[in-house]
C-alpha cells in the first residue's frame, strides 16, 4: 500500500482547528453524571479458560443507562499488580478470547479487556431501544442527526464506566487507558473525561478529525460517513457537528496524563493526518512512534513492547 496521505514533514505540522461545540463539556458532564447514578458494583467471576499462567475473571459492569457490559480481567497469577491497563477494542472486534490478551499479565500488569457493545466479535449486546445485539459493523452514522442519540455516546460512556469498574475491582496504584484503532479513540476519550489517569496508549487511533477522515479514507469506518453523505449531502454539516462530540482531538485537548501514540504512514483505514490531529492537540506530555511502511496493523508486536517500556518508565513493575 503506497502512502496515501500527507508527507511526514506536513504531518508533523498538521494541526486542524478543534471542532468542539460550546456545550461540549456540559454535554459530557450531563451524560456521565446520569450514567453514574447507577451504582451497581461490577461483578467478577473467576473462570478457567485453560491458561494456567494467569488468573482470569469474567466481569460485568454497568455501562450506559446501567446496561451490562462485559470484559475480561486478566491478572498475573500469585502477585499483586502495580499497574492496571484498561484496554478498549477495535471496530467490530469485541473482547475476543482470553488467550489473545496475555502480554500485559505476563509482564506483571493487570489487564482489563473491555468489550464493545454490539460489535460482531463481542459478547455485549446493545440493548438500547435504538439498536440490537452483536452484529456486523456499521455504527458511524447511527444517530448522525443528534449527539444525544448517536451510538458513540453510549460506547464512550461504557469506556468511562469501565475505568470506574477497574478502580473498584483492581487495587492497582497506577492506571492506563489503551487500545488500537477504535480502542485508541476510546482511550483518548477517556483521557479527556476521566481524572487521575497515569498513562494513555492510543495506537493508530480512529475517531479523530472526522471530516478529514471521511474525505481521505476509502475504507470503513470513515467510508461509512462518506457513503451516507453521498446520499444525503444536505446533512453534512449536521453530521459533522454531531461527530464533533465524539472526536478524539477534542478529548485530547483536555487530557493531562502522559501519552504514547503510534501512527502508520501507509494506513488506509485511519489516515495518519487524523492521528496527528489528536497528537498535536494532546494537552498532556506526549510522544509518538512512527511506522513509515506499515498499514493499519501499526507497529504490531514491536510496538507492543514499546508500550510496556513506556509504562515501565512511568512506574516500574
Automatic annotation (TrEMBL):
GO terms for biological process: polysaccharide metabolic process. One of its GO terms (molecular function) is carboxylic ester hydrolase activity. Substrate binds at residue 91. It comes from the Bacteria. The active site is at 181 (nucleophile), 267 (charge relay system), 296 (charge relay system). Pfam families: AXE1. Residues 1-312 form the Acetyl xylan esterase domain. This is Acetylxylan esterase. It comes from Streptomyces coryli.
Amino acid at each position: 500500500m503506497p502512502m496515501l496521505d500527507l508527507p511526514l514533514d506536513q504531518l508533523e505540522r498538521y494541526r486542524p482547528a478543534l471542532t468542539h461545540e460550546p456545550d461540549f463539556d456540559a454535554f459530557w458532564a450531563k451524560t456521565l453524571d446520569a450514567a453514574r447514578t447507577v451504582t451497581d458494583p461490577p461483578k467478577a467471576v473467576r473462570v478457567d479458560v485453560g491458561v494456567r499462567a494467569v488468573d482470569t475473571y469474567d466481569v460485568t459492569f454497568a455501562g450506559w443507562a446501567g446496561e451490562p457490559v462485559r470484559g475480561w480481567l486478566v491478572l498475573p497469577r500469585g502477585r499483586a499488580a502495580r499497574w492496571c491497563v484498561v484496554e478498549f477494542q477495535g471496530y467490530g472486534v469485541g473482547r475476543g478470547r482470553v488467550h489473545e490478551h496475555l502480554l500485559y499479565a505476563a509482564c506483571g500488569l493487570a489487564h482489563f479487556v473491555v468489550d464493545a457493545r454490539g460489535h460482531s466479535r463481542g459478547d455485549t449486546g446493545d440493548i438500547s431501544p435504538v439498536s440490537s445485539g452483536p452484529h456486523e459493523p456499521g455504527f458511524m452514522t447511527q444517530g448522525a442527526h443528534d449527539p444525544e442519540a448517536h451510538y458513540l455516546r453510549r460506547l464512550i460512556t461504557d469506556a468511562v464506566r469501565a475505568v470506574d469498574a477497574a478502580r473498584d475491582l483492581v487495587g492497582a496504584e497506577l492506571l492506563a487507558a489503551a487500545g488500537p484503532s477504535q480502542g485508541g479513540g476510546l482511550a483518548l476519550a477517556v483521557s479527556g473525561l476521566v481524572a487521575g489517569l497515569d498513562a494513555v496508549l492510543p495506537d493508530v487511533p480512529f475517531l479523530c478529525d472526522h471530516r478529514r477522515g471521511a474525505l481521505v479514507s476509502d475504507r470503513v469506518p470513515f467510508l461509512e460517513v462518506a457513503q451516507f453523505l453521498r446520499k444525503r449531502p444536505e446533512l453534512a454539516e449536521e453530521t459533522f457537528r454531531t461527530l464533533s462530540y465524539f472526536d478524539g482531538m477534542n478529548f485530547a485537548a483536555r487530557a493531562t496524563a502522559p501519552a504514547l501514540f503510534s501512527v502508520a504512514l501507509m494506513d488506509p483505514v485511519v489516515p495518519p493526518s487524523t492521528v496527528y490531529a489528536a497528537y498535536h492537540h494532546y494537552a498532556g506530555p506526549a510522544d509518538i512512534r512512527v511506522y513509515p511502511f506499515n498499514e493499519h496493523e501499526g507497529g504490531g508486536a514491536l510496538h507492543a513492547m514499546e508500550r510496556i517500556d513506556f509504562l515501565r518508565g512511568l512506574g516500574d513493575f
